[in-house]
From TrEMBL:
The keyword Cell cycle does not apply. The keyword rRNA processing does not apply. This is 9507_t:CDS:1. Its cofactor is heme.
Amino acid sequence: MPPLVRYRIPIIGHTFSYLFDSVEFFAQCRKEYGDIFSLYIWGQVRTFVGKEHIHEVLAKDDVFSFKEIIRKKIPGDAMYAEGFGDSRYNIMVIKEYISKRLEIYNERMQTSLHSSIQKYFGESRESKVFHNLHYPLNKVVAALIANIFVGEEEAKNDEVIATFAEFTSDMAIFLAIPPILDFIYPGLQDYINRIPVRLGLYNPAAKHRNILVKHIKKQVDKRLKERKVCQDSWERPNDLIQEFIEEKNFDPNNIDCAAIADKLAFIIFASIITTSRSCTNAFIDLASRPEYIQELYEEQLQIAKEADKSGILPFEALDKMKKLDSFVKESLRLTGDVVGNPHLVLKDYTFSNGLQLPKNHVVDLYFDDICQDKSLQGPNPKSFEPFRYVNKNSPASKISKDFTVFGGGKHACPGRFIATTQIKLFMHNIILKYNFRTESGKVEEKLRIGPMTFPSACGVIFEKRNATN
Ligand code: HEM
């Protein structure tokens, strides 16, 4: 078994150090116990795996499962007939229906971004201070993703954008409840959390599901009717609804819009807050370091020459944002989560170094051990070096042994291409349009809750650029 780090207070074990001193505490454990060690947290022994063995966890999906942890924590099975759906199908949807067709969505994503930036940040030449930028940026990303999932028309509806924006945080309540009852019996908290959902007393998904069903029904009815009338001259809409309508098992005589809404649920859950959080972090990381804005601005100005009259860039222009891509990747690398991405052990397992784990054990990845390691990241791994990846053939969407923000192995995030595309497009536009800096004039740190981080709620000063600055 992995070594259990010494602790003094029975029952509480390492819970306090995990919650209130995670950065130093994990570094100390790593130094004393090596790259695999166990801690006693919330009444349970959990194992943390560092850089030498993280890839074993990510590669062996017959042994380690992230999805099973989500299933245990979020009662998707009690809210949806099919739970959170079949993960192979979810991956296929993202790869085949979205990533391979990103070019088709290019113009729409940019148009959506232009209007969202205008809506939330405005055209005024006077400087303005915005606080808590994660809130508007979550809506910006929600509108972008809704556009691809339910189409251009429905994505303009505020109700739809609100559902896309709020779905994950409403569901994440189950992840946010501290598992205090696990001190009494491991797993008790998840069991109790499920009860009100099973009894039909509480269901955070219900409101969003109804909204999705209403808008999907409107589109499906409209499209089937128009296709019949227009026949060959009908212009096929591009979005996930249309993809689902064209699947073999879709029956136009027995349309189940709830089933279509349920197909979207997990993908909405996985896509929006992850992307908006990273987008907000990248933006505040740059506002914190205004000395890099000019260099990035010059790159964006050069690329903007390829835009058409409406300011839409060709899809290939994204590949030319070399410095911006590196900046985004550095921001992702320094997200600041010390540990995370828990996996359930599905069967007894022996690591390549001989340490053994029993079935049903939980293993977390020790991210800092990769993200802040000199041998993997090069000199000054703790400092933010925005152009670290320029000319390294290492784009932000690339998973590798030294970059596990999108996981790795078979279950590496299939949405990473769309996520990085959206973050870069947002940053490109915001850099071209505004000058910005933190209100404090300092580097703003993320909000830390235990080993996890959230975007800073700090003030950022926006000033609309003149044509000359
Ligand atoms: C910056 C944004 C994002 C980050 C940091 C992120 C991170 C991750 C990570 C670490 C995993 C791996 C979990 C594992 O180890 O099994 C994952 C899986 C997943 N992500 Fe993302 N993600 C992001 C955006 C997206 C987007 C935009 C989508 C959808 C369009 C998406 C869909 C998924 C799905 C469906 C899975 C599960 C894959 C599977 O079961 O094999 N993600 N993501």
